[in-house]
Amino acid sequence: MEKNITLETLAIDGGDRTVQTHFPWPIYDETDVQAVADVVRSGRWGNPDCGDLVETFEQEFAAYCGTKYAVSCVNGSVSLRLALMACGVRPGDEVIVPPYTFIATASTVLEVNCVPVFVDIDPDTYNLDPKAVEAAITERTKVIIPVHFAGLACDMDAIMDIARRHKLRVIEDAAHAHGAEYKGRKLGSIGDVGSFSFQSSKNLTSGEGGMVVTNDENLYRTMASLRNVGRMEGHQWYDHFNPGCNYRITQMQAVLLSRQLNRLDDQTVIRNENGLYLNKLLSNIDGILPLTRSPEATRHCYHLYIFSYDSSAFGGLPRQEFVARLAAEGVPCSTGYPHPLYKQPLFQNKNFMCYAIPESVDYAAVNCPVAERACRDEAVWIFQHAMLGSREDMQSFAEAIRKIQRVVTQA
Ligand SMILES: *Cc1c(COP(=O)(O)O)cnc(C)c1O
């Protein structure tokens, strides 16, 4: 049998990979190993009264974000929960969230007996559309949770203005946004509370972990108490004032985070510059449209580099198959979320257990067309560790896409 000889063969069909670089994550060296080993040998692993490394990291992170206070906790879901509780939400209150985000942004709203209200994203940024936010406000709305998706700043001036006029709290979900900026201010420092995750995929990580930052002393005191089993400063160990839980992190996590924080700025600068460069390279490829960066997004940290894919420029190749080919060429990538959050069985089946969601709430009736399109056939994500590569790596990402386009359109 004679094989159809083409000029090039995709890696998925046994050809050479376009991208040869391996992109490691997490990044650490022997001094990090030593620092954690030192904590282990010290025997001072956690509470009570050996939490000085945790406090040190909290102060470092608050200073980095430009906020007065920071409270660490076990993950970036609990941090949202602490923020919601501290904001004083009551059962049945409405919280505005985007549908294109990780489940925790909405499921933590259920955990505090409140109603997630899904508001569609902007097609150019995949962030909450402020006009849609304002249109969704009712007399029961208490909080807006803008997610700085992928590390790209939301339109915070518009969101803060809406919040002020309607007397709402703003919790920034900055789980993707360590070190990213809006008009030169760190994301997470603009709303009432900023919430971060240190889970292993995130741009700053200790495997698991989370943090809330704030400038509001009352919110700070409440979140610190909730994190520490409802204890309050100046009282006895077995005095409990608030309905909190033990959400504390260990000294081993804290020392690792302190050391990783020293790398964060350099890494963010690299991702930011690579993102700008990749925008230029990919804008020239038919059918590939990078998301838009407004001038106010002064620093993007590219937890994800996202572009939208138009199969018609790729001979009708479905996005799933395009991404399989791109991954085989050596670009760490994915199609992202398969559905907007309201389509998850949790919401469709209203499997809310004892939570105070009114009967009238029906997630089967929710439709956010932009999020639907992003999930169904548009979005392609390149992961943050690949954005730490060189300029040549960015060129090879673009070349991998061009190669796929050539092969599938000549067939
Ligand atoms: C990762 C993530 C969270 C939750 O963080 P965990 O530490 O995994 O609990 C919350 N929101 C967004 C947008 C995330 O990506």
From TrEMBL:
Keywords: Aminotransferase, Pyridoxal phosphate, Transferase. GO terms for molecular function: transaminase activity. InterPro entries: DegT/StrS_aminotransferase (IPR000653), PyrdxlP-dep_Trfase (IPR015424), PyrdxlP-dep_Trfase_major (IPR015421), PyrdxlP-dep_Trfase_small (IPR015422). Signal peptide: none annotated. Gene3D superfamilies: Aspartate Aminotransferase, domain 1, Type I PLP-dependent aspartate aminotransferase-like (Major domain). Belongs to the DegT/DnrJ/EryC1 family. This is DegT/DnrJ/EryC1/StrS family aminotransferase. The lineage of its organism: Bacteria, Pseudomonadati, Bacteroidota, Cytophagia, Cytophagales.
